[in-house]
Amino acid sequence: MTAGYLSLTDRDRDEMLAAIGVSSIDELFEQIPEPVRFARELDVPPALTESELMRYMEQLAAKNSHTGVELSFLGAGIYDHYVPAIVDPILRRGEFLTAYTPYQPEMSQGVLQAIFEYQTAICELTGMDVSNASGYDGFTVAADACFIAKHATGRTKIVLAETLNPQVREVVKTYAPGFGLEVVEVGHDGGVTDPDRIAAAAVDAAAVIFPQPNFFGCLEDAPALAAAARQAGALAVAHVDPTSLGVLEAPGAYGCDMAIGEGQGIGNAQSYGGPHYGFLASRMEYVRRLPGRIVGQTTDLNGERGFVLTLQTREQHIRREKATSNMTTNQTLLALGGLITLAWLGPQGLRELGETCMSLAGYARERIALPPAFDRHTFKEVAFRTPRPAVEVIREARKHGVHPGYALGRDYEGMDDVLLVAVTEKRTPADIDRLAAVLAEVCG
Amino acid sequence: MAGAESYPDDLKYHPEHDWARIDGDEAVLGITWWAQDALGELVHFEAPAVGGSTVKDEPYGEVESVKAVSDVIAPLSGEILEVNEKAIEAPESINDDPYGGGWLVRIRLSDPTELDELLEVEAYQAVVAEQ
Amino acid sequence: MQLIYEKSQEGRRAGRIPTYGLPVPEVPAALARKEPPRLPELAENEIVRHFTNLADRNFGVDTGFYPLGSCTMKYNPRVNERIVSLPGFGNLHPHQEDEGAQGALELMWELQQILAEVAGLPEVTLQPAAGSQGELTGLMLMRAYFADRGEGEQRDTIITADTAHGTNPASVTMAGYKLEKVGTTERGNLDLDDLRAKVNERTAGLMLTNPSTLGLFDEGIAEVADIFHEKGALLYYDGANLNAVVGKSRPGDMGFDIVHYNLHKTFSQPHGGGGPGGGPVAVRGELEPFLPSPQVVRDGVGGGATFRLDRDRPKSIGRVRGFAGPFGVFVRSYAYMRSYGPDLTRMSETAVLNANYLLAGLRDDYELPYDRHCMHEFVLSARGLKHEHGITALDVAKRLMDHDVHPPTIYFPLVVPEALMIEPTETEPKERLDAFIESMKSIAREAAESPEVLKGAPHSRPVQRLDEVKAAREPIVKHAFPERSPIGA
After folding, report:
1. Is residue C254 a contact partner of residue A82, using CB atoms and an 8 Å limit?
2. CB C143 within 8 A of CB C204
């Protein structure tokens, strides 16, 4: 009777049962009342050996059109950025991969110091004072920010720019009823958000959340949006793309109270949407309201520097029903991938990454013979008007081995003819030429 | 670190381990030696706003150690006139001197008849003995 | 050990980014970055050494025994890491058309089928990011279900056990419900009289872990379910301890209406130093319309079947995280299930056998507050050591580190003083269990003979006990860089 990854032999089992003083394993399960005991075998597919499993999984994987077999310009929140070769071997060190949350600091100095370094990196990117150890993804951190803002301001209205990723807005709306929050959305004007409309909506609001760059790829007048929020007494929350923060201003430098975002583009594979890491950073005054774990620096009995989980009374395992969040599991390993990538890039590499994204987006705008939907500065995505529905353009282009982008009509009324094209440093001018040629053919 | 166990006899006590020092129509409030000892080294006092109010038997703030958090229960109702900034900046003062430098808030009493419900030191020490 | 920032030298670098010789468009001055972020500047070999040295200061299941109660620290098969890196999985974009993601959707659909069979409930959402988000999702489902029946206002209270994980009450608050707690009997079961007095038409539901955080199966679970169902309320199963009962007892058969799984506990997603996890939720048919959007569905059967993401869900509670869930976690957990097949039952049987073996080996040296056979974990108390020798559960935990064992969970559940919660999991060989019993016995002896050795433990780790009071009183939560030198200086 060996199965899966079990290691007891028949002899082990007999000796152990004798030590316990029972005659069979079933006897141990007698505490389960007979009517709720499960009597038959589980009806699940048969077991596979490792080589069979690998072969089966390779067959499943082969049914997917990934960004290595299809020239892809999909973005809209998740991007095909390069993940440095050093990331995976480090994340696969068993001491990181197979460790639990570092509640026992003497066993966990490695991951604790790494999280402290990650928190530092996020604060440097965003210009904030404190970062948590990560949130689930770039979507749920927006709901976390709303919860903080509600308790910090005593207000219950949340203002969302409609140019925020639609899934961010959906997640906030899902959480809002339980939090006792009302959500107001502010539409865009020509692809960006008007600060005057934010100022009007922000009256009596707990927070205003706006993106930079926005979901259409356009640069918002983020300093004006933050000022409009703060003048109304609402917290200004910027949802930012970390790959842009070598070239775009840090939210802390233009008065934001919090900066949040999706970390995937820095160090994580696309992986069909997860797992990735969300980041959440704020000014120091909100530190006791942050959800999730925070690592702090201290000293040991000998005065040596060391790191511990700190301010734990915020968290569910101590404060229970009064906690700042129910969060326990987070995304440490993915955030560690982010830290390694940021160290690999350095400040110069991060700036170059942003510059290359912008220059390729500019090149796409020049080469693609479709009118841009918005006349705005962009970062790494450009929205184009298509002469037929964008979903049809996508379907036809894929037949040529090119995925041309995201159909904005999936989320925005009246945008059925808008195609959002994303580039990363992995796309070359020749790739963009090919996209331009395919689009010319399928739109022609 | 905290001094020896003590319960001054000029204070009024609440069974949730809070004390009040009455001065005319005002009172200074804090937590007892027993409470700070049970919590251990305090790291934070979440203070109420000046101008707010306390309601007898209801929490008006929180004190935290590394691994525990506890509501601070108001022994008396009133308007909060002052919060002890030292207890916020240096919460260890609550451990070191719970009846002196570690006081928490000063209030103006809104219902002096509540005083009759508080415990004298002997009665409170009986509460502590049962813990 | 130095921080990576302390090793940084201005002008040094690792990665290089292609420029393609294109002009860089200008960023409007008001939006452009002024001060560059102070990211580390190191050559690549020094980055690798830095993180390798950090790994050396950490301890995982791959390093040694990790009997951390409630967290199910089992072996994480290496083949699963190879599988998740297949380009067809790792490089698949979440907005890929369904037609271009058939392999991923098929895998998710198959995973849903196995999860449904394990829970004894027919419908599954994979979306929640972790167990705690699964809890919140489950409570939102209750809210939507009662609102749909016109009982949304009336049912405002959730009941939890006094032994519950902290996530349960925290989730109750986040979902906008009131909390009521129910007690535990001397045998470790829910107190049925207390329950009957508290369950009424204001009750939305119960959240319960079974086996409980004491590692005991609730012997009155059928009566518990009846008490709630008679009042029209629902039962939520916190799957943190599912590793005890896979193929042995199904939450749906126990009477639960909603179940979350922790894929990182029961189904071997590596914990990664804190995450990621996965928290799928299974429900009875009546609750299916309220599940988050999108849902993975199958059209047709057999070889011609196709799979898609269904977004047309008008009664859905909405979206709880991005996309369709943490796909990489699904890949690993599905691979884990497929390597056991129907023998997943043996997994739970062995987990329970290993736990009872440890319990039998330790019962004479530590107090056992609930003297029953345990399930996959058990709770001991160091209360006796504390009274006799001043040695606490914390001291025992720290001393175990010197035996190259990760300590068990301590001071939880709250109902047991000086608690030590021990969960060996099914993947440990008997020799490891025997060595752990010996370690625990030797620590109990040391408590009497040389308690100062325990008070000073650990003696073999990179740091000694750390000053957590200092960390909380004066939080230092990021590196303090030296002041920037003025430009041109």
Report:
1. no
2. yes
What is the DSSP track for A347-410? Answer: HHHHHHHHHHHHHHHHHHHHHS-S-BSS-S-BSSEEEEE-SS-HHHHHHHHHTTTEE--EEGGG
Burial class (CB in 10 A: 0-12, 13-18, 19+), B89: exposed
Give the neighbours of chain A: at least 3 Cβ pairs within 8 Å. B, C
Encoded tokens for C131? 């167990």
Q: Chains with ≥3 Cβ pairs under 8 A against B?
A: A, C
- Tell me if residue C112 falls in helix, strand or coil: helix
Interface of A with B in 321-360 (CB under 8 A): 322
Two tokens, residue A352: 């170059």
- A312 and B44: CB-CB below 8 Å? no
**ipTM above 0.95?**
yes
Query: What is the rounded average pLDDT of the residues A412-423?
Result: 98
pLDDT digits 0-9 by tens, C116-137: 999 999 999 999 999 999 999 9
Q: Is A316 on the interface with B (CB under 8 A)?
A: no
Q: Which two tokens stand for residue A356?
A: 């290359």
Tokens of C488: 């041109």
Distance CA B21, CA B8 (A): 10
Rounded Cα distance, C190 and C172, in Å: 19
Please tell me which residue of chain C has the smallest CA distance to A297: C476
What are the tens digits of pLDDT across the range A308-343? 999 998 888 888 888 888 888 999 999 999 999 999
Low-confidence stretches of chain B (pLDDT < 70) are 1-2
Nearest chain A CA: its distance from C61 CA (Å): 5
Q: Which of A439, A379, A391 is nearest to A418 (CA)?
A: A391
- Cβ–Cβ of C27/A99 closer than 8 Å? no
Strands (E), A163-257: 182-186, 205-212, 235-240
Phi-psi region of A64 (alpha: psi -120 to 50; beta: other; left: phi over 0): beta
